TrEMBL record:
Source organism superkingdom: Bacteria
InterPro entries with a match to the protein in the record: Rv3654c-like
Protein's UniProt name: Secretion/DNA translocation related TadE-like protein
Organism: Microbacterium halimionae
Length: 105
């Protein structure tokens, strides 16, 4: 009987640990996707500001961010340099990422 309870305890502990690791891994993946959305949106805004693309830079950034399931929370241009912040949700939490893009210095 004591051996059965020990095995059940070990299995329950392993299950709890597995759920925690899966959640942490999923959060890391969601963070990387949001960072990719911010990078892509900033690049799109910078390309549009430089004239390589047609349109309004911040509108283009919003279009690109939306393809990642994110929303632009701020978009600023300083000449040809674009700084874009995007937000997204993971489970119930609101997360954000910021990126800058522009011509090389």
């Amino acid at each position: 009987m004591a051996g059965t309870l020990s095995v059940l305890g070990i299995v329950a502990g392993a299950a709890v640990l597995s759920v925690g690791l899966v959640t942490a891994g999923s959060a890391a993946v969601a963070g990387q996707r949001l960072a990719s959305a911010a990078d892509s949106a900033a690049l799109a805004a910078a390309d549009t500001a430089s004239g390589a693309e047609i349109g309004v830079p911040c509108d283009r950034a919003a279009e690109v961010a939306a393809t990642f399931g994110a929303a632009v929370s701020s978009c600023a241009l300083d000449g040809l340099i674009a700084t874009v912040s995007v937000t997204g949700t993971f489970l119930r939490w609101q997360t954000s990422a910021t990126a800058r893009a522009g011509p090389p210095p």
